[in-house]
Every structure is written in C-alpha cells, then in structure tokens.
Amino acid sequence: MGGAGFMTGMVLLLMALSSGVRSCPPSDRAALLAFRAALHEPHLGIFNSWTGADCCHNWYGVSCDQETHRVADITLRGESEEPIFERAHRTGYMTGYISPAICKLPRLSSIIIADWKGISGEIPRCITTLPFLRIVDFIGNRISGSIPADIGRLQRLTVLNFADNQISGTIPASLANLTSLMHLDLRNNLLSGPIPRNFGSLRMLSRALLSGNRLSGPIPGSVSLIYRLADLDLSRNQLSGLIPESLGKMAVLSTLNLDFNKLSGPIPVSLFSSGISDLNLSRNALQGNIPDAFGPRSYFTALDLSYNNLKGAIPKSVSSASYIGHLDLSHNHLCGKIPLGSPFDHLEASSFVYNDCLCGKPLKPC
Ligand SMILES: *[C@@H]1O[C@H](CO)[C@@H](O)[C@H](O)[C@H]1NC(C)=O
Ligand SMILES: *[C@@H]1O[C@H](CO)[C@@H](O)[C@H](O)[C@H]1NC(C)=O
C-alpha cells in the first residue's frame, strides 16, 4: 500500500469509527425498519435512503439527538417542496399503518406523519409510553379507532394534531392532564360525546381546534380559564346549551368559531366588547336581541350571526364599532332601520337579507 493509499485508508477508518460512535443503536434501527415495513409508499421512494447501519445519517426524515445518538424525530410530510417531491411533480401518497414498533424508540421526541392521505389503521396505543414525546402530528391520513385513553401521560406534549382523519370515540378525560399542550387540532374526525369538563386545565393551550366532529353537550365554562387561548374553533358539531358569558372576558381570544351547532339562549353581551375579531355564531338557535354593546373596542374582521332566531332591531351602538369587515345578519327575524355609520358603509344587501322587516340602505328605504 502506498502513502496516499495508507492515508486514504486511515481517513476511511476514522470516518467509520466516528460514524460508529454517532450511529444509532441497532435497536433503534430495527424499530425504524419495522415501522417502514408497515408502510407502502409507491411513488417517491422516500424510504430508499433507509439503508446501512447508521440510521442517524441520511435516512430521509429521521434525525437523532446530538448527545444521546438516539432517534429523536421522524418527520415525513406528504406535502412538501423538498427535491424528492419536486422531481416527481406530485404530492405524497402512502398506505399501510403506523406500526407500534415506533414505541421501541424510547427517546422519540417528535413524530410527524402528515398528509399521506392513505395511511389507515389505528393510533398505536403504546405511544403514551414514550415519555419524551413533544410533537405528535398525524394530520391528513385515514386513521381510525379512538384516541388512547391514557394520552394524558404524555406530560411533555406541546402539539397534538390528529386533524383530517376518521378517529371516533370520545375525547379522553385524561387529555386535560396534558399541561404542556399548546396546540390541539382534532378537526374533521368522527369524535363524539362531550368536551371534557376539565378542558380548562390545559393552561398552556393557545389553539383548540375541534370543529367538524360530532361533539355534543355544553361548552365547558372552564375553557375561559385558559389564559393563552387565542383561537377556539368548535364549529360544525352538535354542541348545545348556552354560550358561556366568560368567553368574552378572555385575555387573548381573537377567533371564536361556534357556527353550525345547536347552541341556544342569548348572545352574551361580553362578546361584542372583547378582543375577539373573528366571531362566527352562524347556524345555531340563538335567540333574543343583538346585544347593544358595540363600542370603540369592537373590531371585527368577520362577524357572522346568520341563520339564528335573533329578533328586534340592529342596535344603534353598532355604528360606534371601530371596524366591521364582513358582517352577516341574514336569515334571522330582525326588524327596523339599518343604522348608518362608517362600519356599515361598505356592506351589501346580502349582509341583511332574509329577515322579517329590516329596511334602509343597502336594502330598500323604510
Ligand atoms: C391526571 O393526572 C393525575 C395526576 O397524575 C392523575 O391522578 C389522574 O388520574 C389523571 N387523570 C386522568 C383522567 O387520567
Ligand atoms: C360562518 O359559519 C358558516 C357555517 O359554518 C359558514 O358557512 C360561513 O362561511 C362562516 N362565516 C365566515 C365569515 O367565515
């Protein structure tokens, strides 16, 4: 062997040694291969790079903790602008199921298997035994079955996203034990039963998106204890009872969507002078007058009260709102003269049609 050959040999040996030190343990590699074996990705070849001993290097979508050299993140998104997708000119499609083998990755911190459209099967029960999980995101698949009853064990969880699947059953009571949770998205599934009464224990939550399910029962008043909650979407369910007055007193709530439920009773006065700027109460059974509670603090990009049983006149105070971008009061039983004023100048007749006897601009004169 010549000098150059010797040097090359040494470099290769050093590289092998250093990557040996940093490579994932065989048990992590075996778990990943078992996870991969339960999935079928026919178009892109995202798993083609999952070869060789060192799953911490150049395995597509896998990354390891710098210190422990254990698998920490699995990130497989079916909608991506990465070269592998650009070359194929398509979004991802994958079938199969999420194997319980992922539970043999004890240092897993984030698992994102999103928007593959065809992944079915159930959420592996055993994920609740992974103490380091911070992010679980399975949005946009065809996952069925229920949410593990002991999901509340995941004390480090900050993001839980099961949106756009076929998950049924109830929201487990233990969910309220996820005291680190910041982002909860369960939209567009088949969840039924009530929102847990102690939902308000989720003190770190800033987005709670539960729309498009079959949830029933009341909106728990405890929701208003969630100090950081900015976005609450409970629309398109079967929620009933009153809208808690306390929702209008929340510090940072800016989007409140309760449309398409079975809510009844009056609209709480507090909602109109709160920090809420996007309010949709459409398609419920709300009764009584529109609260005469608008003022300079009332700033709405969208205010939709359509398809309810509201009666009486549109309150004069509405003219003192600082802004109303989109307004829909149609399909109620309102009557009387539409107030004048800057928030109303740009609105069209469609905002007011299908009421009992509203009149004045932009409808016909009184
Ligand atoms: C929530 O956590 C507490 C304390 O760890 C535990 O006692 C309780 O059973 C948990 N609640 C549920 C519904 O799992
Ligand atoms: C309010 O909700 C209704 C019913 O779900 C929907 O049709 C409407 O577009 C929503 N309004 C706004 C302003 O988003």
TrEMBL record:
The places in or outside the cell where this protein is found are: Membrane
Domain Leucine-rich repeat-containing N-terminal plant-type stretches: 26-65
Please state the protein's primary subcellular location.
membrane
Q: Name one GO cellular component term.
A: membrane
- Where does the signal peptide begin and end? 1-23
InterPro entries tied to this protein: Leu-rich_rpt, LRR_dom_sf, LRR_N_plant-typ, Plant_LRR-RLKs
Query: What superkingdom heads the lineage?
Result: Eukaryota
> Under the GO molecular function aspect, what terms does this record hold?
ATP binding; kinase activity
Assigned keywords, A-Z: ATP-binding, Glycoprotein, Kinase, Leucine-rich repeat, Membrane, Nucleotide-binding, Receptor, Repeat, Signal, Transferase
Supply the PANTHER family for this chain.
Answer: LRR RECEPTOR-LIKE SERINE/THREONINE-PROTEIN KINASE-RELATED, RECEPTOR PROTEIN-TYROSINE KINASE CEPR1
Protein name as it appears in the record? LRR receptor-like serine/threonine-protein kinase FLS2
Query: What species is given as this protein's source?
Result: Vigna unguiculata (Cowpea)
